Amino acid sequence: MAGVVDEIGSMMVEAKRTIAAAASRFDPDVPPTAFYVLRYVMKHQPCSAGDIVKAMAMDKSAVSRQVTLLREAGFVDVVPDAADGRVMTLRSTERAESRMLEVRHENRAVFRNHVEGWSDDELAEFAGWLRRFNTPAG
Predict the structure, then answer these.
(1) What is the pLDDT of residues 77-125, one digit of tens each?
(2) Which of 31, 44, 49, 70 has the fewest CB neighbours in a 10 Å radius?
(3) What's the pLDDT tens digit per position in 13-26?
(4) Rounded-to-integer distance, Cα 51 and Cα 6, Å
């Protein structure tokens, strides 16, 4: 088990480094935490700041700061909820969608370097193990 824990630790460090580099490529003024928040918004839009707080286990004030940064940079819009206009929801902008698409293409190149020479079967097996690991038991 110790070897597994060590490798997961190494993977987490590499993931953090990769996310930081992707955030910098996305926009040098967007810190990794804001990049994480933007990725969440893009995947779950429309969503509220409260949704982000719960899903990402972040402090409400930290989420608020990141959303403000993203809004001021033109990457998210804050809009009234269609069902309840008192509730504000977040949506990514076209600018964010366009930049993220470019960054995703760049990220694929980074990941391809990590798995160069792997067969399709090895990639599928690896994806299955990651999926299993990322799905909590119970």
Answers:
(1) 999 988 888 889 999 999 999 999 999 999 898 888 889 999 999 999 9
(2) 44
(3) 988 998 999 999 99
(4) 32
Q: Burial, 57: exposed, middle or buried (Cβ in 10 Å; 0-12, 13-18, 19+)? A: exposed
3-class secondary-structure state, position 90: strand
Length of the chain measured in residues: 138
C-alpha to C-alpha distance for 58 and 83, rounded to whole angstroms:
26
Encoded tokens for 92: 């990514």
Angle (CA) 41 47 48, round 5° = 110
Domain boundaries, the chain: 2-134
Which residues share a beta bridge with 88? 80
Please tell me the distance from the alpha carbon of residue 89 to that of residue 45, in angstroms, as a whole number: 8
Classified by CATH at the fold level, domain 2-134 comes out as: Arc Repressor Mutant, subunit A (1.10.10)
